[in-house]
């Protein structure tokens, strides 16, 4: 069956079939199996034609509507009229989706690999929908289409039952390091793993859980079991032994011999990943006072994250007691009055930097229930400051409401740390709360609110930043200009230009660093003028770094329009900073620049050589090839990697032959540069550029 999908970024501009602009309302002329939206924006996200109440009797709605969701916010903001649609939600968020997703959607697909989404959706449609007319949900089975196990609706019903049963345990099961396996071995092999685990869980329930044990498939590599609490240890033991027995069959002999696989990470870098394992977390919802399916899902995600942070290899199975055993001594340490206060605060703040989720629960409990009543107010406040900082760095979502409460605390120190925590968490739903604090009477709180709006990085924060009074404190105005630049507000360039002329070098450095967020020829012109006038070496260094970043972000056309200011700027920099402009010189090709680059490769220090080799990648001459090959013989791995990376600018067979040898280099940094260069050449050949 050939599947027809429309995949678009914005449905206000959606075209349905050929000539859709002329006959936009005639949906019946082109009936796709599904319409896919990257984003839930508003009631206008999808065209009116797809809603049942706007379709003529002779017309048909699409077979399914697919919406992407990366957070519970996306589900909660779903307009009421969507509920009437045959919805499928592609869940790209962390952990379990909210219960509202299961109640609204006909099905949920789990994925976080956008390039493979189209393929996955097509397979999904081919398997599940045979061009049958949508029947308003009467034909829903409630089972996961891959494993055949009960899906999200039955799962939510079982979770609600477990919440009211003191002896009922919930077991969350996740396959660790499944995603890199799926990328390396392919979707077919990944589906085989999921089916095998589904069978293993069913066997565990039948042999160890006795009657009444429920097994559900949330989606992707996530499963849920509910069972009598007395069977949990037996189920854990069965899963541990069972998965290790079947795991070897999923891998090649080569991967088994090195005890892992080599695959590409999310940021497209080659990394080594361990063999897959099961990550299981069991708890009693009733004992933990979790009364809703949403609360159970959230707690299950917390335990799963805690377990993953503790896993070294193979399987890991945890209960709340396992996590608390680790965290209880730390809690006592943080409240021990006999230990120096700075040491306790250092430990608390280290928790935030650790990335370990189970610490978040400890700190949230301290904030929620309060500290020891015998503490004096100052010590109480200082410890709370450290806790708020840590929760923000940890991005611990269950603490969100408590942190919001502290933004209204009468103590300005706590307000400041609370608003900083919200900025670090990065949720757009906090913008209005943070925005109001930009007018706080305390300058520290107001400045932190401005910084937090910049950290969140959403344009909605601009309406608050633009209201900052011109008579405000200079520190506040500087940070406002910086945050506006981070939000790509072009009008902030004039503000930054003004601060780059300030007598205080601190403000000049801040402004110079912020200008790198504003891509465009005008930013480079502003930096050139500032570099000519600047006398402070540290400030000039920041300006040179920003010049390099802005130049790298410009297109060849834009860079060519300001080519005459690159060499004058280069001349105004001390020798130790000149390397910042060498990559841009390579992109603006002329003889003067070429000579400077060659001289830097032959006579410069390591930083100049690396930068010059990057610049030479834009030149395709035979002489340039010889220079790069000569640089590859250097003993410094950084220089060899730069030479190899520069070969990515060529596309002839000589470059590929050279890179093939570099792929065997003894240094990992060089090998990664070589693989990146090869892929770049192949891409250039495919596109014909």
Largest sheet: 5 strands, parallel
List how many beta strands DSSP finds.
Answer: 12
Strand order of the largest sheet: 1-2-3-4-5
Question: What is the assembly state of the chains in this entry?
Answer: single chain
Task: Provide a count of the helices.
Answer: 32
Q: What percentage of amino acids are in beta strands?
A: 5-15%
| Helix content percent band | 40-55%
Structural shape: globular
Average pLDDT for all residues: 77
Radius of gyration: 29 Å
Q: Distance between the terminal alpha carbons, to the nearest Å?
A: 36 Å
As residue ranges, the low-confidence spans are 1-63, 129-141
Structural class: alpha/beta
Report on the architecture of this protein:
The protein is built from 32 helices and twelve strands. The chain is α/β, with parallel strands linked by helices and 689 residues long. Strand 11 (277-283), helix 9 (293-310) and strand 12 form a beta-alpha-beta unit. The protein has a five-stranded parallel sheet.
Which keywords apply here?
single chain, 689 residues, disordered N terminus, five-stranded parallel β-sheet, five-stranded mixed β-sheet, alpha/beta
Short description:
The protein has 689 residues and is α/β, with parallel strands linked by helices. Helix content is 53%, strand content 9%.
Helices and strands in order:
Blueprint: E1 5-8, E2 34-37, E3 64-69, H1 72-76, E4 87-91, H2 99-104, E5 107-110, H3 117-128, H4 152-163, E6 168-176, H5 178-185, H6 187-208, E7 214-219, E8 222-228, H7 232-247, H8 253-257, E9 260-264, E10 270-274, E11 277-283, H9 293-310, E12 316-318, H10 320-335, H11 341-354, H12 357-369, H13 377-394, H14 400-406, H15 412-425, H16 431-436, H17 443-456, H18 462-465, H19 474-486, H20 492-499, H21 505-514, H22 521-533, H23 537-553, H24 556-561, H25 566-571, H26 582-587, H27 591-603, H28 606-616, H29 622-631, H30 637-646, H31 653-662, H32 668-687
Parallel strand pairs: 1-2, 2-3, 3-4, 4-5, 11-12
Antiparallel strand pairs: 6-8, 6-11, 7-8, 9-10
Helix pairs in contact: 5-6, 6-7, 9-12, 10-11, 10-12, 11-13, 12-13, 13-15, 14-15, 15-17, 17-19, 19-20, 19-21, 21-23, 22-23, 27-28, 28-30, 30-32, 31-32
């Amino acid at each position: 069956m050939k599947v027809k999908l429309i995949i678009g970024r914005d449905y206000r501009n959606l075209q349905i079939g050929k000539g859709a602009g002329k006959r936009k309302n005639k949906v019946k002329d082109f009936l796709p199996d599904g319409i896919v939206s990257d984003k839930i924006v508003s009631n206008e996200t999808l065209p009116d034609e797809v809603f049942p109440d706007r379709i003529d009797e002779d017309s048909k709605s699409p077979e399914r509507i697919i919406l992407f969701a990366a957070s519970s916010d996306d589900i909660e903001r779903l307009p009421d009229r969507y509920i009437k649609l045959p919805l499928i939600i592609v869940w790209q968020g962390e952990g379990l989706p909210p219960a509202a997703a299961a109640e609204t959607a006909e099905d949920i697909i789990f994925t976080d690999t956008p390039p493979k989404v189209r393929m996955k959706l097509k397979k999904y449609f081919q398997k599940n929908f045979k061009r049958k007319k949508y029947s308003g949900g009467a034909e829903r089975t409630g089972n996961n289409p891959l494993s055949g196990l009960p899906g999200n609706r039955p799962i939510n019903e079982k979770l609600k039952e477990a919440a009211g049963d003191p002896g009922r345990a919930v077991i969350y099961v996740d396959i660790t390091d499944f995603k890199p396996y799926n990328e390396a071995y392919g979707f077919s092999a990944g589906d085989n793993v999921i089916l095998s685990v589904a069978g293993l869980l069913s066997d565990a329930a039948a042999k160890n859980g006795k009657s009444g044990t429920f097994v559900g498939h949330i989606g992707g590599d996530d499963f849920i079991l509910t069972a009598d609490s007395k069977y949990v240890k037996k189920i854990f033991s069965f899963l541990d032994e069972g998965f290790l027995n079947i795991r070897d069959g999923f891998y090649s002999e080569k991967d088994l011999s090195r005890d892992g696989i080599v695959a590409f990470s999310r940021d497209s870098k080659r990394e080594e990943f361990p063999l897959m394992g099961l990550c299981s977390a069991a708890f009693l919802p009733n004992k933990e006072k979790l009364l809703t399916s949403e609360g159970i899902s959230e707690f299950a995600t917390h335990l799963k994250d805690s377990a993953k942070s503790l896993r070294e290899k193979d399987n890991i199975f945890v209960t709340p007691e396992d996590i608390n055993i680790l965290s209880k001594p730390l809690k006592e340490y943080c409240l021990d009055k006999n230990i120096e206060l700075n040491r306790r605060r250092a430990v608390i703040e280290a928790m935030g930097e650790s990335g370990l989720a189970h610490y978040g629960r400890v700190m949230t409990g301290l904030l929620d229930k309060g500290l020891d009543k015998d503490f004096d107010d100052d010590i109480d406040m200082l410890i709370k400051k450290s806790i708020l900082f840590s929760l923000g760095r940890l991005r611990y979502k269950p603490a969100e409401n408590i942190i919001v409460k502290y933004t209204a605390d009468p103590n300005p120190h706590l307000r400041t740390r609370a608003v900083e925590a919200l900025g670090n968490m990065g949720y757009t739903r906090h913008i209005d709360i943070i925005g109001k604090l930009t007018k706080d009477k305390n300058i520290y709180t107001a400045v932190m609110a401005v910084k937090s709006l910049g950290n969140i990085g959403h344009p909605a924060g601009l309406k608050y930043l633009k209201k900052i009074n011109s008579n405000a404190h200079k520190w506040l105005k500087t940070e406002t200009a910086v945050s506006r630049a981070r939000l790509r507000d072009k009008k902030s360039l004039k503000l930054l230009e003004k601060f780059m002329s300030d007598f205080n070098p601190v403000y000049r450095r801040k402004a110079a660093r912020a200008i790198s967020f504003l891509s465009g020829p005008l930013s480079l012109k502003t930096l050139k003028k500032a570099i000519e006038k600047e006398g402070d070496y540290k400030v000039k260094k920041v300006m040179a770094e920003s010049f390099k970043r802005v130049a790298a972000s410009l297109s060849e056309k834009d860079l060519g329009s300001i080519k005459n200011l690159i060499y004058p700027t280069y001349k105004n920099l001390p020798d130790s900073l000149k390397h910042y402009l060498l990559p841009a010189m390579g992109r603006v090709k002329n003889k003067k620049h070429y000579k400077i680059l060659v001289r830097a490769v032959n006579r410069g220090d390591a930083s100049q050589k690396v930068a010059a080799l990057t610049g030479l990648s834009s030149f395709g001459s035979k002489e340039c090839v010889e220079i790069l090959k000569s640089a590859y013989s250097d003993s410094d791995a950084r220089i060899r990697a730069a030479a190899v990376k520069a070969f990515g600018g060529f596309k002839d067979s000589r470059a590929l032959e050279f890179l093939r040898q570099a792929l065997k280099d003894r240094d990992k940094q060089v090998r990664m540069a070589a693989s990146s260069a090869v892929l770049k050449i192949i891409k250039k050949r495919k596109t014909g550029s």
